[in-house]
Design brief:
Elements lengths: L1 E6 L5 H12 L4 E4 L13 E6 L5 H8 L4 E6 L2 H11 L5 H4 L2 H16 L17 H19 L4 E5 H6 L3 H7 L25 H4 L2 H17 L20 H14 L23 H12 L3 E7 L13 E7 L7 H13 L8 H7 L5 E6 L7 H8 L4 E10 L22 H11 L4 E4 L5 E5 L11 E2 L2 H6 L1 H5 L1 E2 L1 H8 L4 H4 L12 E2 L6 E9 L10 E7 L5 E6 L9 E5 L6 E10 L5 E4 L9 E3 L1 E5 L5 E5 L5 E3 L4 H4 L7 E8 L2 H12 L2 H10 L1
Parallel strand pairs: 1-3, 1-4, 2-3, 4-5, 6-7, 6-8, 8-9, 10-13
Antiparallel strand pairs: 9-11, 10-11, 12-14, 15-16, 15-18, 17-25, 19-20, 19-23, 19-25, 21-24, 22-23
């Protein structure tokens, strides 16, 4: 008897092959995953296993006509996907040769085993968007479902779940043989086995995975006869043997098989809620250095202590920092002071100074972590390739924001990418053949220094909605898995290979910057008048954003008889949240009482209570003034190092005009307007 067994990868075809061969008795010829083209002459006593995705459906159907018995093995697509993901390393040379990817995968498996619901499958590198792994897995399962639907009565369809449960009576009747489960498998193929069970997906999927995968897999499940039941296990449980220990064994055996050095994978650590495990910009840069033989590296990072300079492995390294004057606010001042104490301030270089310092010097790879604000990012993107060797790479962080709230212009607590993605998209508009973005770590943009067009206008803009709808077109998005495979050959042109040109991208003119204001703190010496020589001036954007303004009295500022604060230099509405006075030791000495504003010395200012929006100060001229009523004991101490902190938000011109009109309306009209609003 000739028997053909067909199934997709990781569906138990190996176990079934040996079970059928054993039932056939004698010494049948067994073919394990040979291609149809190599199986032209088959003895009468033969068992053949084909992997469905290795051949076309039509070729399998034609080939199957020469067999006495034909078995199609199917499996729940959800279990199939989990099994494929964990076995992927065995068949992926690029992943197998990348220690960073293996360590992240291994660490995620350990976290998944410890707390199954805390790690989604989408966090594993092969599942990162865009996921070729997911797309190809779905395509193969869909094709198998279509093949099963068209299979005639000459094919016996067996479920994997029946195979592992030993429910083989129908198969035995079809073959006319006493097929027994648990046949002995050749040791060289035993590594493919993992749980030998069914329904494992209920312990591996998270709620987020169900949301992503149900629309993709449900139609295939229906076609294969599986119920649309997506209930997860009430208490998810994963064993080390079926997760990270299985992965360790595969990595060890496969690296040895292909001649790679042994790789130490870390032991499990106690689970820490909220801890992030993912590939980083440093992993991407080190991969570029290894694969393309780069020797010289420059890091140009924000001056906030977030450098990963020590993680980069390169023959020659150099670092410089960008000043971030706009972000020296109250929340970060102390942190930046600590950074300053640990950094050589000679490395603090604005872009022109950086270009001047390294004039005539060239690097193979430059990393830019921008200030995230335009046009600063645009200018850096256009200028830094001048310091690259031909064929070198500029690496740009934060080019793929996952959520719109990360893209606000002003720095936000926690993750923040600002406008970097817009500047990179515009660079790519003119240099599509030389730009891609790796999806990890908020998007790591890569710019190949080959035939770059850098003298382009930077006045174009996009919205986040435009970007999110077509992010692969705007930033050339590839997953880390695609990055590994494209860089595997060591040919940098392959990394930047582009698909056919998409539809034209849309940009529009950048909106005009918000109107800028200035606010001032004056101090008056005994017997003198207020003067510009005894004043500090700080910019104040009129865009509604909350600003923390620090006025630190300079040397020679005392003795002081009185302070005066001018909140703006135009007619504007301002919401002041706090005014504080601190001594040189940073002790709070006085604070403004907003509730008692009526009895304080405000000039050219009217107050307007906008309800939930807060209390607004409306400047009625271009010279609003506030004279804090400070106790004599404090006035006697004022001098150099004392600090006035003002937390305030100046409203855009239109809002200011509307509030001014509302405040100036007669009471009855004002009440009517507020009711309508």
């Amino acid at each position: 008897m000739r028997c053909l067994i067909v199934g997709t990868a990781k569906t138990g075809t190996t176990a079934l092959l040996y079970a059928v061969a054993q039932a056939m008795g004698g010494q049948p010829v067994v073919h394990m995953e040979d291609r149809i083209g190599d199986l032209q002459v088959l003895p009468e006593h033969t068992a053949v296993k084909l992997i469905f995705e290795h051949e076309s459906g039509a070729a399998i159907a034609a080939f199957g006509a020469g067999f006495d018995k034909r078995i199609l093995l199917v499996r729940d697509p959800r279990d199939n996907l989990v099994s494929r993901l964990l076995y992927m390393v065995a068949d992926n040379p690029a992943m197998l040769g990348d220690p960073a990817c293996l360590r992240v995968f291994h660490k995620l498996l350990q976290r998944k085993q410890q707390m199954p619901g805390s790690v989604s499958l989408q966090q594993f590198p092969p599942m990162g968007k865009p996921s070729d792994f997911l797309a190809s897995s779905c395509a193969h399962i869909q094709a198998l479902a279509a093949f099963a639907a068209d299979a005639g009565p000459g094919w016996h369809i067996l479920r994997y779940e029946d195979l592992v449960a030993g429910r083989l009576d129908a198969l035995a009747a079809y073959l006319g043989l006493a097929v027994q489960a648990g046949a002995k498998v050749d040791p060289q193929y035993q590594r493919v086995a993992r749980t030998k069970g069914a329904g494992d997906w209920r312990h591996w999927f998270s709620g987020a995975d169900v949301v992503l995968l149900r629309p993709l897999l449900a139609p295939m499940m229906a076609a294969l006869g599986y119920a649309d039941d997506w209930q997860l296990a009430p208490e998810q449980h994963i064993t080390p043997e079926h997760s990270w220990l299985y992965f360790e064994r595969l990595v060890r055996e496969r690296r040895q098989h292909v001649g790679l050095a042994p790789l130490a994978l870390p032991a499990p650590e106690p689970y820490q809620s909220g801890a992030v495990v993912r590939l980083s910009k440093a992993d991407i840069i080190n991969r570029l250095i290894r694969q393309f033989g780069f020797k010289t590296f420059l890091e140009y990072n924000k001056f906030d202590g977030s450098s990963f300079y020590g993680d980069i492995v390169c023959d020659s390294k150099c670092i410089a920092y960008q000043p971030e004057n706009l972000h020296l606010d109250a929340a970060r001042a102390r942190h930046l002071l600590r950074v300053t104490a640990a950094v050589d301030l000679g490395q603090l270089l604005p872009l022109p100074a950086l270009l001047e310092r390294h004039a005539g010097q060239r690097f193979d790879i430059i990393f830019l972590d921008p200030t995230h604000e335009r046009p600063d990012v645009d200018l850096a993107l256009r200028a830094l390739p001048a310091l690259l060797n031909p064929g070198g790479v500029l690496v740009v962080h934060d080019c793929n924001p996952e959520r719109e709230e990360l893209t606000v212009v002003k720095r936000r607590p926690g993750a923040w990418v600002g406008e970097t993605y817009k500047a990179f998209a515009l660079l790519r508009q003119y240099n599509r053949a030389s730009t891609v973005t790796v999806s990890e770590d908020y998007g790591v943009g890569l710019v190949w220094n080959k035939d770059l067009l850098l003298d382009y206008p930077i006045g174009a803009d996009i919205t986040y909605a435009q970007f999110a709808a077509r992010r692969q077109a705007y930033n050339g998005l590839i997953s880390y898995q695609q990055f590994l495979e494209r860089s595997e050959r060591g040919d940098i042109a392959t990394l930047f290979a582009q698909p056919p040109a998409p539809a034209p991208l849309r940009f529009q003119p950048r909106p005009a910057p918000p109107a800028g204001l200035e606010c001032q703190l004056f101090w008056r010496k005994p017997g003198a008048d207020f003067a510009e020589a005894d004043a500090l001036t700080l910019p104040l954007p009129a865009d509604g954003s909350v600003q923390a303004l620090h006025f630190t009295l300079p040397p020679g500022a005392g003795p002081i008889e009185r302070l005066r604060f001018d909140m703006a230099d135009a007619v504007v509405a301002v919401r002041i949240e706090a005014i504080e006075l601190r001594n040189p030791a940073d002790a709070l000495m006085w604070t403004w009482d907003a509730a008692a504003h009526a009895g304080q010395d405000w000039r050219n200012v009217r107050f307007h209570d906008a309800g939930a929006e807060g209390l607004f100060q409306l400047a009625t001229s271009a010279d609003p003034q506030f004279y804090p009523a400070l106790p004599a004991t404090i006035l006697g101490q004022l001098g150099p190092g004392w600090q006035v902190l003002v937390v305030m938000a100046a409203q855009p011109p239109l809002v200011s005009s509307l509030l001014a009109a509302l405040a100036g309306a007669p009471p009855r009209q004002r009440d009517s307007s507020q009711a309508c609003a």
